[in-house]
Design goal:
The protein is of the alpha+beta class. It is built from 2 helices and 4 strands.
Length: about 60
């Protein structure tokens, strides 16, 4: 699993950060992925964060 962020869509709402510690909204106002290839054990949290993004800036590649 690989997490991808489209920064051209990111508005820095922070919903992903609220759902998983893998994400952080930086001082620049954009999401930063702290671990682009997390363990399978984190899948449900990653998918919850992807779904929570109001501007659909996050995706998961297999």
């Amino acid at each position: 699993m690989k997490i991808v962020a489209d920064l051209s869509k990111c508005d820095g709402h922070g919903m992903c950060e609220a759902m998983s510690e893998i994400f952080e909204v930086g001082a620049d106002g954009f999401v930063h992925i702290l671990n682009e290839s997390p363990d399978e054990a984190d899948r449900k949290y990653v998918l919850a964060a992807v779904e929570a993004c109001p501007v659909m800036a996050l995706s998961v590649q297999q």
